[in-house]
Amino acid sequence: MADPKGFLKFKRAKSRYRAVAQRVQDFKEVEILRKEDLAQEQAARCMDCGIPFCHWGCPIGNVIPEWNDALYRGQWQKAVDLLHATNNFPEITGRLCPAPCEHSCVLNINDDPVTIRENELSIVEHAFQAGLIKPVPPKVRTGKKVAVVGSGPAGLACADQLNKAGHEVTVFERDEKIGGIMRLGIPDFKLEKWVLDRRIGILEKEGIQFKTGVNVGGNYAVSRIKKEFDAVCLAGGSRAPRDLTIPGRDLAGIHFAMDFLMQNNRRVGGASISEKEQILAKGKRVVVIGGGDTGADCVGSSHRQGALSVTQLEVLPRPPESRADDCPWPKYAFILKTSTSHEEGGDRHWSVMTKKFTGEKGQVSKLSCARLEWSGKDAKGCPLMREISGSEFEIEADLVLLAIGFLHPEHPGLLSSLGVEFDARGNVKTNADYMTSIPGVFSAGDMRRGQSLIVWAIAEGRQSARCIDTYLMGESDLPAV
Q1: pLDDT band at 328 (very low <50, low <70, confident <90, very high)
Q2: Measured between alpha carbons, how far is 470 from 53 in angstroms, rounded to an integer?
Q3: How many C-alpha atoms does 59 have within 13 Å on its Cβ side?
Q4: What's the rounded Cα separation, in Å, for the pair 216 and 149?
Q5: Using CA atoms, how far apart are residues 312 and 301, in angstroms rounded to an integer?
Q6: How confident is the model at residue 132 (pLDDT cuts 50, 70, 90)?
Q7: Which of 219, 295, 340, 396 could be 290's S-S partner, Cβ–Cβ 3.0 to 4.6 Å?
Q8: Where do the domains of the chain lie, and which CATH numbers do they carry?
């Protein structure tokens, strides 16, 4: 145990960020890495509970009390080894994970939880800076070849685990660089891409092959991949966006959020975007429809592009600021989340339904909206909403970004060519061993489970790797989580 009285001595330290006036001028990370002495002090708050519910809240089963203890004692090698035992990419989850583990921390009963996410980031960044993280190629190769399609967190975690087991792994990515949605969908102010490149460089030195610009099911036939590899893992994510099919949807200036974010990330990365294809917020009245993380990323990116104004709309009611009675500890608390992007400005509105887009000369100029009332639940337990009579209002807009989630993975191309079965939601259907309806073809991550958290994608990648290893070798020494 780090310090038996640590949680009594120290209060939870808030995350530190660059000043708003400074950070909106660029796309560099907004969070400031903690100094090591503060990280060790915060680790002392971990109580090493008899039943550590943080384990229950973490999809990858991080051994949180153990590495907090090592952090507190300055045992950096032990701490990072414990991190890597369950998490392939702690430098990424340490920046992006919403930390469900913290919602399950026992301290939540009457205090603020341990800063688990920040502690994780402190450990891994110290380890990188101190040269504690080095390539460790497998000593023995099995002779088995595995293809991983998709280089997001699920695909990379699967590839990393299979390579550790000694298989020859090739990762195929249809975009121009490795990283999937982490590279193209997450703004640099949350995850600068050198962080990805640093880890990818290690994976390459450990023997994983990466092939970019390869669209399996397009310019690379599925018959070829099935012939050349002993097993295949489909980890292409959930990229079919949910649309808003209301009058005026065909007007110019209305885009899917991911199209906006991906183009911006390419621009920040140095790519040249033609004037005709530009989706820019500069000097425009921007309306973001959707109140989740993707919507917040659009808000932050619009600020940095120089938007005239930014308004975010959410159809659901405003969440409470503290844990509600129907969401008791140790469950994840659905409370009001104010991101760094929201702190930078803009307006937020809840319980608002967009009914119609109107425009001039083919360009969107207004949204017709109405306010909603939420009361009661239907037979399935889903909240019921109704439009409030006389609550209609309009919002002026030059650019509208739809951030209302994703339906399922893209079916044309890879999936249709393979002929895999889908579940009722349109995701790739697998059995308990992550195998699809096609023998030797597995699936993991959002492509299999639907849109979810990065930490769930890593968990799925790891679990599918164990199943693939068992399929190839008859047994597996890879961890189950």
Answers
A1: very high
A2: 30
A3: 21
A4: 7
A5: 13
A6: very high
A7: 295
A8: 6-129 (1.10.1060.10), 145-239+407-473 (3.50.50.60), 243-404 (3.50.50.60)
